[in-house]
Specification:
The chain is mainly beta and 305 residues long. Helix content is 4%, strand content 47%. The relative contact order is 0.16. This is Phage tail protein.
Length: 305
């Protein structure tokens, strides 16, 4: 089994393998793949014990130990400068990626301090041991690639018997798909925690007051979002439902920025989350539902990998 680390675009390869290390970096230890503390929130009870309310995860500590190996392209001094620059605590957030076999994960981290270069027994012109202490304010690991789906009310109808020449007065064309205003789309969350979404709404014509509805398997409505606006042909609207980053935006093509249109959200709307497992969504509008397309992006979240 081979593991591989990547920190942004700086360190493209840190291998943990049998045999000889590859490249300038060879990591020998990684702590923090699963270890993260949870804070339990409770309230006093007039009976034995307490009443449990919820648990929240603390920030994640990640420690990496690696060997830097100089070669004919980079000296040890150059490697130390490169590592110090990359892990400067004042530089902000880095993206740490971890790959094991065919599965990849990512997490945003900040450096707790300047890298520690061990001198006792390891300092040389060819190899040196380094310790990195990283902190992830958001403790979840994320899938590297987004899950992408479409909320579509169009059903395919691609099976037919076709003969030439076509005969009969009713043969005016071939039906490739048909519109179904009540179709549910299944979005599967295979992660360890509920997750938000980014929804991109585009229209081929004027669409009035679009809404997204999440329903339970028994058909009861649980959550809904509705925009009190008309989407015109060529408009692009982005809805973000992630906790701590909730947004309603419209792309301003003239000035090239996302314009805040949060005020178009109806007062009874909820920012829909995708629970673990299967989630059933559909959309509705007050006019021309067949002219609306909704593209959904979401990332799976993991408490450990």
């Amino acid at each position: 089994m081979q593991s591989k680390l990547m920190i942004n675009d700086y360190v493209t390869e840190m291998y943990q393998t049998e045999g000889q290390p590859k490249g300038n970096y060879f990591f020998i230890k990684l702590d923090g793949l699963g270890e993260v503390e949870a804070d339990r929130h409770t309230m006093d009870s007039n009976r034995d014990g307490t009443i449990f309310i919820e648990s929240t995860l603390a920030e994640r500590d990640i420690q990496i130990e690696l060997i830097m190996i100089a070669d004919e392209f980079k000296s040890m001094e150059e490697l130390r400068r490169e590592m110090s620059k990359m892990l400067n605590p004042k530089s902000g957030t880095l993206e740490l990626r971890y790959k094991e076999d065919e599965r990849s994960y990512r997490i945003d981290v900040q450096s707790a301090h300047v890298p520690t270069f061990t001198t006792d027994g390891y300092l040389s012109k060819k190899a040196q041991r380094v310790t990195l202490d990283l902190i992830a304010s958001d403790p979840f690991w994320y899938a590297v690639e987004d899950e992408i789906h479409y909320l579509s009310n169009w059903e395919p109808n691609l099976e037919w018997e076709l003969e030439f020449p076509m005969t009969g007065a009713s043969e005016l064309g071939i039906e490739l798909e048909r519109f179904n205003g009540d179709q549910l789309v299944t979005l599967v969350n295979d992660g360890d925690e509920a997750t938000g979404m980014e929804l991109y709404l585009t229209a081929s014509g004027d669409v009035k007051n679009p809404g997204i509805i999440r329903v339970m398997a028994d058909g009861t409505m649980t959550q809904k979002m509705k925009l009190l606006t008309t989407i015109h042909a060529g408009d692009l609207i982005r809805i973000t439902t992630s906790v701590g980053n909730k947004r309603i935006e419209k792309w301003n093509d003239t000035q090239q920025f996302w314009e805040n249109i949060f005020n178009t959200l109806s007062l009874d709307s909820q920012f829909i989350q995708l629970d673990i497992g299967e989630n059933y969504l559909r959309y509705q509008t007050e006019s021309h539902a067949d002219q609306l397309e909704i593209k959904v992006h979401y990332r799976l979240r993991y408490v450990g990998v």
